Amino acid sequence: MKERAEKDTLTNLLNRTEFEARVHKFFSHNKQPEGIFIILDIDHFKNINDSLGHISGDKILCFVAELLIEIFPETNIISRLGGDEFALFIPYKLEQFELEKKLLKICQTFSANESTKVSCSVGVCFSPIHGFSYKELYKNSDIALLNAKQLGKSQYVIFEHGLTLPSFSQLEQKATALLNDVSDAMFVCDATSNEIIYINNTACHFIDKNKYECIGAKCYQLFWDKCKNCDRCLSINQLNSYYEEDTVMKDGKTSVHIKAKLGKWDGKDVKIHYLQGISDINK
């Protein structure tokens, strides 16, 4: 009876109440409470439920539960908090490379069955440096999780002091998720500093960079290998709206059609760039 009250009925992991109680117990019994708090959810889970039905969705939830038990044999403090949200607590430190290896396994796209591929987004924080209580650790790992989702999902973010909740509105967050998967390469840079504040997966693949390398970089350095504003940015400023041209990338062999315009992004003045018709000029 007691075990039934502690467990999530679908996955047989700890339920939220028992998970919280065990983390509280850890802190009350340890004077130097070193541990790792991890929270994750399944990317695009609503779409899976809507397209395949709740029975398939439940099977995927059980699959992820089993995966967490397999990847983290060092702890039995693993929970389905509710919906597609899971959490786990490791009551001691792991070597950084060992932890990151495990996190990559959770984030990577894997086959839940013959027809469904699934990935997860993950937020991580550590005690005691990020908190001495369940409440603090949950809050900080959730901030990290939301940042992982903003960066394009299927990845992990480790919390650090100064990291804040993403400031996009809910509508902008949904738009960002859609833009990540469109076929055209797209990036957005601050209109004044030219620092990239958003870049989709297609654009990252195009320049062979990950999002961490791109966010905050100057667009003219990253895409055009220049040390100052390129002519197209100057043209956008002069025309105060829109610009497009056919050009060749810095490798000298890739042609692309560029469209750029001034706009607003999360309340900021930005330049939005689309790279279309990418092809090899030698073919």
UniProtKB/TrEMBL annotation:
<dbReference type="GO" id="GO:0043709">
    <property type="term" value="P:cell adhesion involved in single-species biofilm formation"/>
</dbReference>
<dbReference type="InterPro" id="IPR029787">
    <property type="entry name" value="Nucleotide_cyclase"/>
</dbReference>
<protein>
    <recommendedName>
        <fullName>GGDEF domain-containing protein</fullName>
    </recommendedName>
</protein>
<dbReference type="InterPro" id="IPR043128">
    <property type="entry name" value="Rev_trsase/Diguanyl_cyclase"/>
</dbReference>
<dbReference type="InterPro" id="IPR035965">
    <property type="entry name" value="PAS-like_dom_sf"/>
</dbReference>
<dbReference type="Pfam" id="PF00990">
    <property type="entry name" value="GGDEF"/>
</dbReference>
<dbReference type="InterPro" id="IPR050469">
    <property type="entry name" value="Diguanylate_Cyclase"/>
</dbReference>
<dbReference type="GO" id="GO:0052621">
    <property type="term" value="F:diguanylate cyclase activity"/>
</dbReference>
<feature type="domain" description="GGDEF">
    <location>
        <begin position="33"/>
        <end position="161"/>
    </location>
</feature>
<dbReference type="InterPro" id="IPR000014">
    <property type="entry name" value="PAS"/>
</dbReference>
<dbReference type="GO" id="GO:1902201">
    <property type="term" value="P:negative regulation of bacterial-type flagellum-dependent cell motility"/>
</dbReference>
<dbReference type="InterPro" id="IPR000160">
    <property type="entry name" value="GGDEF_dom"/>
</dbReference>
<dbReference type="Pfam" id="PF13188">
    <property type="entry name" value="PAS_8"/>
</dbReference>
<dbReference type="GO" id="GO:0005886">
    <property type="term" value="C:plasma membrane"/>
</dbReference>
